[in-house]
Write a structure and sequence with these properties.
This protein has four helices and four strands. By secondary structure, the chain is mainly alpha-helical. Strands 1-3-4-2 form a four-stranded antiparallel beta sheet.
Length: 235
């Protein structure tokens, strides 16, 4: 027996449904808790919860102090990465942990443009810093280079600014840094050339369209010229 009942209502938006093959599938968000420990031998034993943090923005010369830069622009470098900061800490033999997917709350752009932070052992940093605080020509001391004897602010026995300056001096000499900046420069040049080609193509297409339109308009005007009849004016 065939059962006959009311038909299901028709969805008026059914034709507007995007097919599955045309849908945009965004990549999954990476886990912000992923951590790379150095030295690797301490991967399961290092307790980095009490370490102090350095974000790339601290050393970035393209950022303002308002956006989180911690050292002077003359000491900062352009676009440092967390992995370059980690390499510099390896040169200084400072224990650290890299968290490549952590964002800096003070710099909104860093949440997608230059992610990550480095947690470093403040005790090892105090030993590795070894900076001698000298008097300047004006008889004053650089307070940022003074050891943090009181240990306030969570920086242990060394000023974070002094360590950031040391790191900023080491990073430009890293081979990985030179390679990355060269690739970045080439990508920017290719992008610039692509924009110039697109602009040239757009201009040439507009000029051709204008020339065709002018030719059509001129030909039509010449063929439909009208002559007024001469005659006596009516009084």
């Amino acid at each position: 027996v065939k059962q006959v009942g009311p038909k299901a209502p028709v969805n008026p938006l059914a034709d507007l449904t995007i097919p599955p093959e045309e849908m945009i599938h965004l990549p999954p968000k990476p886990d912000s808790n992923i951590t790379h420990v150095w030295p690797p031998a301490e991967t399961f034993t290092m307790d980095y919860k009490m370490f102090s943090a350095i974000y790339p923005t601290y050393l970035d010369s393209t950022k303002s102090i308002k956006h989180g830069r911690r050292i002077g622009a003359k000491d900062a470098i352009e676009d440092p990465s967390v992995f370059e900061i980690g390499m510099a800490l390896q040169v200084l033999n400072i224990r650290h942990a890299i968290q490549p997917y952590k964002g800096y709350s003070r710099d909104a752009e860093s949440r997608w443009d230059n992610l990550g932070r480095v947690l470093f052992d403040t005790g090892a940093a105090a030993t590795a810093a070894g900076d001698v605080v000298t008097m300047g020509t004006d008889g004053s001391f650089d307070l940022d280079a003074m050891p943090n004897v009181a240990g306030g602010g969570g920086d242990g026995g060394v000023s974070k600014k002094a360590l950031c300056r040391r790191i900023a001096k080491i990073i430009p000499d890293l081979p990985a840094r030179a390679k990355r900046m060269e690739e970045k420069k080439q990508a920017e040049e290719e992008e610039k050339k692509a924009r110039e080609r697109a602009l040239t193509t757009a201009k040439s297409g507009g000029a051709k369209g204008g020339a065709k339109g002018g030719a059509k308009g001129g030909g039509g005007g010449g063929g439909t010229s009208s002559k007024k009849k001469k005659g006596k004016k009516k009084r």
